[in-house]
């Protein structure tokens, strides 16, 4: 309902009030029809006559033909073909009842049931045995001997040949399943020029809408099945029309058409690209300096990490020892001078910087100071050529204050990623925001329209209005912040996100500061994405980036763990995290989405500073 209303508003040029629903398009799958012989599409039943008329010159025929035709008293009659597993959901018993109760249908056509392979029904699984037993009982009840074929065996290579006798006798293919997810056999039947009768529940609706080669029926209504079969079998003009339409439109399910259709929709979506979709990679101010080009510099410098040895071997050491391993270089290069750094800032132009990710939740000043000192000392040891970035769920002002309590100079960091990835600024430029990144994340950001919806949808049952209230001091252009009274007063991220998306609001939610604040940020914003943004802007190889995280943190912490970068998890850094508000108890675990045994992910036995 919401999607339909938004589509109408967009068509009329009316504002959607920050709501957006992804546009979905059904693209038929591609199939290979090379196995269809042009002779199979020729009218006439010459092949069948050669097989069943005594004295007529016989050609080598597929074995499955004789296996089927031996059941029939009069094999010249049109064939009704059903091909499926012996599964109750395939609804074969209703088809048999419809056939058995219609004298006109029995006189007009034979029925062929291809129901898998069997040796002994008593040795089959419960569901299959029940269906096959019911089939045999119905054949006996309606005395359908000589009119119904139910061969015991067929090979996969026989399947294309099964459609041919039905088409040559001007028969019909039927799929009476209660629900059919797609309906591959309907497309195969159409490729042989065979009209179809199919269930009105599921994929056959889209298939017949494309092919126009048959009728849809209610699978529960035996009378409707009978009428549909008779309308095709008794009316030869209609049968020929369905045959021609099926053969004319079958190309819609070919691989070439599938690829063309897919690419056309991709081209159409590219007609309205997101602003700043392609990020600029600025030229290095020192690209032509005496130190050589950017590519030469990066080739001359690398972090000495072996994915399976050096980093893992250091896992038993302290975090400081691992930082030393991360910062070792295979070759020594002349440190950049202070004058060169002042000329133009491009931290990746001559180094491969580990990225220090600030601990989330509420770390104490001593713990935070050890991590900051670790990162800055590594930068100092590299002669100032190691870029350092602070990434946090706090606001810019809170992050600067936290660094101040540690006695660290905020300007020592090359960039600040704040509010869970909603803001990016450069402290060496007096906290100037990155306008290009701001334009990038603003794409389809609902802005003020979603602000009032979050408190209404995010409070737990019985919670008061003050339990999830606006935190104006922590808000920014791309971050709506809310003060949380307690974890039991609010819903979890997955639940709130689902409620917002049902209303057309698409954004990210992050609980931070030990479950005391909820940040709502644009869908295109996140701390991992901001890290990748910087890698593009600065020309950094992500495999040469180190990320330091605590063993607890914000609800987006697990997104920082996987990737090309090296991740160092510092145990004991954060006393209280926010992960309990990420997903429901019956949801998947972090181990289900993060490869904890990855060589790029390391947890030392001792905490920061060797403690």
Automatic annotation (TrEMBL):
Enzyme class, spelled out: transferase
Disordered: region residues: 342-363
Record's keyword annotation contains Transferase: yes
InterPro entries in UniProt: Glyco_trans_1, HAD_sf, SPP-like_dom, SPS, SPS_C
E.C. number(s) listed in UniProt: 2.4.1.14
UniProt keyword Glycosyltransferase present: yes
Protein name: sucrose-phosphate synthase
Domain Glycosyl transferase family: residue ranges: 74-236
Keyword line: Glycosyltransferase, Transferase
The family this protein is said to belong to: Belongs to the glycosyltransferase 1 family.
Function: Plays a role in photosynthetic sucrose synthesis by catalyzing the rate-limiting step of sucrose biosynthesis from UDP-glucose and fructose- 6-phosphate. Involved in the regulation of carbon partitioning in the leaves of plants. May regulate the synthesis of sucrose and therefore play a major role as a limiting factor in the export of photoassimilates out of the leaf. Plays a role for sucrose availability that is essential for plant growth and fiber elongation.
Domain (Sucrose phosphatase-like): residue spans on this chain: 413-559
Catalytic activity: beta-D-fructose 6-phosphate + UDP-alpha-D-glucose = sucrose 6(F)-phosphate + UDP + H(+)
Gene Ontology MF: a single term: sucrose-phosphate synthase activity
Compositional bias per record (Low complexity), positions renumbered to this chain: 342-359
Annotated organism of origin: Panicum miliaceum
């Amino acid at each position: 309902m919401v999607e339909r209303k938004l589509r109408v508003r967009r068509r009329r040029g009316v504002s959607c009030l920050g709501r957006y629903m992804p546009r979905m398009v059904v693209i038929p799958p591609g199939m290979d029809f090379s196995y269809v012989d042009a002779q199979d599409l020729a009218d006439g039943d010459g092949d069948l006559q050669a097989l069943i008329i005594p004295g007529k010159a016989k050609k080598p025929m597929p074995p499955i033909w004789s296996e089927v035709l031996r059941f029939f008293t009069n094999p010249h009659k049109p064939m009704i073909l059903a091909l499926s597993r012996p599964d109750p959901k395939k609804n074969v018993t209703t088809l048999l009842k419809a056939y058995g109760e219609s004298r006109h249908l029995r006189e007009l056509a034979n029925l062929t049931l291809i129901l898998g392979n069997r040796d002994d029904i008593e040795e089959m699984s419960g569901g299959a045995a029940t269906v096959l037993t019911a089939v045999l009982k119905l054949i006996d009840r309606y005395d359908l001997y000589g009119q119904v074929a139910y061969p015991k065996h067929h090979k996969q290579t026989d399947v294309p040949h099964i459609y041919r006798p039905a088409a040559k006798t001007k028969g019909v293919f039927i799929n009476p399943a209660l629900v059919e997810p797609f309906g591959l056999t309907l497309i195969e039947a159409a490729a042989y020029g065979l009209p179809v009768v199919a269930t009105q529940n599921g994929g056959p609706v889209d298939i017949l809408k494309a092919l126009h080669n048959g009728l849809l029926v209610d699978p529960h209504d035996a009378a409707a099945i009978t009428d549909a079969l008779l309308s095709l079998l008794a009316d030869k003009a209609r049968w020929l029309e369905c045959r021609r339409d099926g053969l004319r439109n079958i190309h819609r399910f070919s691989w070439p058409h599938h690829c063309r259709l897919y690419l056309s929709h991709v081209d159409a979506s590219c007609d309205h690209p997101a602003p700043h979709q392609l990020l600029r990679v600025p030229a290095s101010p020192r690209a032509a300096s005496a130190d050589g080009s950017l590519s030469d510099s990066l080739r001359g410098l690398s972090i000495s990490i072996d994915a399976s040895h050096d980093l893992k071997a250091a896992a038993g050491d302290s975090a400081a020892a691992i930082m030393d391993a991360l910062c070792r270089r295979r070759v020594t290069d002349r440190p950049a001078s202070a004058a060169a750094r002042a000329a133009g800032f491009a931290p990746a132009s001559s180094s491969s910087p580990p990225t220090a990710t600030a601990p989330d939740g509420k770390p104490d000043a001593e713990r935070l100071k050890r991590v900051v000192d670790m990162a800055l000392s590594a930068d100092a040891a590299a002669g100032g050529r190691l870029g350092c970035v602070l990434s946090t769920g706090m606001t810019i002002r809170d992050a600067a204050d936290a660094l101040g309590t540690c006695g660290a100079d905020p300007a020592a960091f090359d960039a600040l990623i704040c509010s869970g990835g909603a803001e990016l600024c450069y402290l060496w430029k007096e906290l100037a925001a990155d306008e290009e990144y701001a334009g990038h994340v603003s794409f389809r950001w609902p802005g003020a329209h979603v602000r009032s919806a979050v408190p209404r949808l995010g409070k737990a049952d019985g919670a008061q209005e003050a339990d999830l209230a606006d935190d104006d001091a922590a808000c920014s252009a791309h971050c709506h912040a809310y003060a949380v009274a307690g974890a039991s007063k609010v819903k979890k991220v997955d639940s709130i996100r689902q409620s917002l998306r049902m209303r057309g609001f698409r954004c990210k939610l992050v609980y931070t500061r030990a479950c005391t604040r909820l940040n709502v940020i644009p869908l295109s914003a996140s701390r991992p994405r901001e890290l990748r943004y910087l890698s593009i802007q600065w020309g950094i190889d992500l495999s040469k980036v180190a990320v330091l995280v605590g063993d607890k943190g914000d609800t987006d912490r697990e997104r920082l763990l996987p990737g090309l970068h090296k991740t160092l998890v510092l145990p004991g850094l954060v006393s209280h995290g926010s992960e309990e508000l990420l997903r429901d108890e019956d949801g998947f675990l972090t181990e289900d989405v993060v490869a904890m045994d990855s060589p790029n992910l390391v947890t030392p036995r001792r905490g920061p500073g060797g403690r």
